[in-house]
């Protein structure tokens, strides 16, 4: 007796539906989810027993354990009784600020194989990938401003992706809006931090006074780090508010690098004073390395 062939129509229908749904997702979200998958999944907190939904381990019954916590199926396979422990989970709140000022539109590379993303594009990708990881861990994620308050769930990721895909600001340099940041929460700033450092210091001071800790990740293009310019060069800010022309750009290289190092040192000291962590990422490096650093930095800050 021969079996009737299995129809492939339901499978093909589900595949078409999945493809159609994926096509409606913002490209930024698709890239962020792909990046998040490359990072080993784990909760920000240390693994320990407690209330939660994720299974952690079995352990022998101790004196004082209630009968309702005993896993009778596991206990039936041995002469002892076992409790099924779940991992302790404490819902955290994470606020994100992605600098959308004009300076973040800069990229020092051309097209083709040597192309690099704009600083803002890399910052948005990292922020959304970090949000994906955090939501999967049961955390609430939002922006530092009032437009997107922290919430859990997949729908929040869609909201963040749509918000980050909108046009940026017209000013050359950005300053975080922190009015909606909740006390005792976590914050991640992603920016080139090339604006007025005093305004950033004030933001950190106000947040620190409310028990807020976090991470500052400086995103730079390698050109901004190396200053590979020689001869006659015109330097102009992305919004056009600043302009400088020189006939001997190479003569400025040493002074420029010193000023950049001094700024980075000042930012690091500001972060330490507020109980935050500071790091630098270049767009010529992989996004995965930066996401791993961010994820580890948040864990260290718990």
What does this structure look like?
The structure is a single chain. By secondary structure, the chain is α/β, with parallel strands linked by helices. It has 2 domains: 49-87, no CATH class; 93-300, Rossmann fold (3-Layer(aba) Sandwich), CATH 3.40.50. It has helices at residues 9-24, 27-37, 72-75, 119-136, 154-164, 197-209, 222-226, 253-273, 287-300, and strands at residues 49-60, 82-87, 93-98, 140-143, 186-191, 213-220, 233-236, 243-246, 277-282. The protein has a 5-stranded parallel beta sheet. The protein has a two-stranded antiparallel ribbon with strand order 1-2. The longest helix is centred in the last third of the chain and has 21 residues, at 253-273. The radius of gyration is 24 Å and the shape is elongated. 29% of the residues are buried. The model is unreliable at 41-56 (pLDDT under 50). Residues 57-264 form the DUF58 domain. This is DUF58 domain-containing protein. InterPro entries: DUF58.
Please render the helix and strand layout as text.
Elements: H1 9-24, H2 27-37, E1 49-60, H3 72-75, E2 82-87, E3 93-98, H4 119-136, E4 140-143, H5 154-164, E5 186-191, H6 197-209, E6 213-220, H7 222-226, E7 233-236, E8 243-246, H8 253-273, E9 277-282, H9 287-300
Parallel strand pairs: 3-4, 3-5, 5-6, 6-9
Antiparallel strand pairs: 1-2, 7-8
